[in-house]
Design goal:
Number of strands: 0
Domain ABC transmembrane type-1: 95-296
Family: Belongs to the binding-protein-dependent transport system permease family.
Keywords: Cell membrane, Membrane, Transmembrane, Transmembrane helix, Transport
Protein name: Peptide ABC transporter permease
CATH topology of the domain at 88-272: MetI-like fold
Transmembrane segments: 9-27, 99-120, 132-159, 171-192, 231-257, 277-303
Largest sheet: none
Oligomer: single chain
Helix content: over 70%
Distance between the termini: 10 Å
CATH architecture of the domain at 88-272: Orthogonal Bundle
Length: 310
């Protein structure tokens, strides 16, 4: 187990180093382009050369990369060109806002999707199985911007129950965050529900489940003690990997509802050409991706005895 964790950790570090090097090469290999973005398109060549010398851009490329990497590890990503503030001061609050949104989505989506997936998989081909499967496919097929538009038309303009934006100007508001959570839950629960349903169907047709039923063990006990635990092994991986989607894949929802999260920050930086914010956001997104994969691999090993003791 420790050997597996060490291998996964080494792989994680190797991926981060590789991505960071590629990212630095893409954005900062042309130092005059960097100076032009920071000082503006109308800055003179002399001004750019002074700025480059002052900020250490005349040092060798590898030395600049090592310095940048060490600063990034310490949380120093430079200053935002657009916001005129340290990137860290902007990034962490936005990341925290997205974490709040993601936490609420997980709190509603996971119990809903697992429950529906288990119910559907208990009796393959039944009316409730087909109903849940069709609903899951339909909700997953509708993109976030379409469901956001539909839900806004219903709850904002028709019923007038909820506000149409989630800017949180006066602090956290349950009413303002309700629509973004609804949109993401509606889009994401179907995928997990279908994975859970497929895993449950496979478990219910296994020999040990049939033997338990034939022995007269109560059906409820068979489901809760034997089938459910094994059926949730595969969906666990899918659930952990949803962290990637909830971090950088919610840009549409955050922009639609003017929610000041990580996705909207990344989009604004890309549109403005704020390279230091883009670099920081990319590194954070890649770290979450590889870390969630690390957690998924370790968790799957712990949940599956056949892998743990092999």
């Amino acid at each position: 187990m420790l050997v597996l964790a060490a291998k996964r950790l080494f792989s994680m570090i190797l991926i981060m180093v590789t991505v960071s090097f590629i990212l630095f090469a893409l954005f900062e290999s042309d130092k005059f382009s960097v100076a032009g973005k920071v000082l503006g398109p109308y800055s003179s060549t002399e001004q750019r050369e002074i700025w480059l010398e002052k900020n250490g851009y005349n040092e060798p490329f590898l030395e600049r990369y090592l310095t940048w990497s060490l600063n990034a590890v310490q949380g120093d990503f430079g200053d935002s060109i657009q916001l005129k503030a340290p990137v860290a001061d902007v990034l962490w609050p936005r990341l925290g806002n997205t974490a709040i949104l993601a936490g609420l989505v997980f709190a509603f989506m996971i119990p809903l999707s697992l429950t529906l997936g288990v119910i559907a998989g208990m009796k393959e081909g039944s009316v409730r199985d087909r109903s849940i499967s069709i609903t899951s496919v339909l909700t997953t097929s509708v993109p976030e911007f379409a469901s956001a538009t539909f839900l806004s038309a219903v709850f904002v303009y028709s019923l007038k129950w909820l506000p149409g934006t989630s800017a949180m100007i006066n602090g956290f508001s349950w009413a303002e965050i309700a629509l973004p959570v609804m949109v993401l839950v509606l889009y994401g629960f179907g995928y997990i529900a279908r994975m859970t349903r497929a895993s449950m169907v496979e478990v219910m047709t296994s020999n040990y489940i049939r033997t338990a039923i034939l022995k007269g063990i109560p059906y409820r006990r068979v489901i809760l003690r034997h089938a459910l635990r094994n059926a949730l092994i595969a969906p666990f991986t899918v659930i952990v990997l949803q962290m990637n989607w909830l971090l950088s894949g919610v840009i549409v929802v955050e922009v639609f509802f003017a929610y000041k999260g990580f996705g909207k920050l990344l989009l604004d930086a890309a549109l403005f050409g704020d390279i230091y914010v883009i670099e920081a956001c990319t590194l954070v997104a890649v770290f979450v991706a590889v870390f969630s994969q690390f957690i998924s691999d370790i968790g799957y090993t712990l949940l599956n005895p056949r892998i743990r003791f092999s």
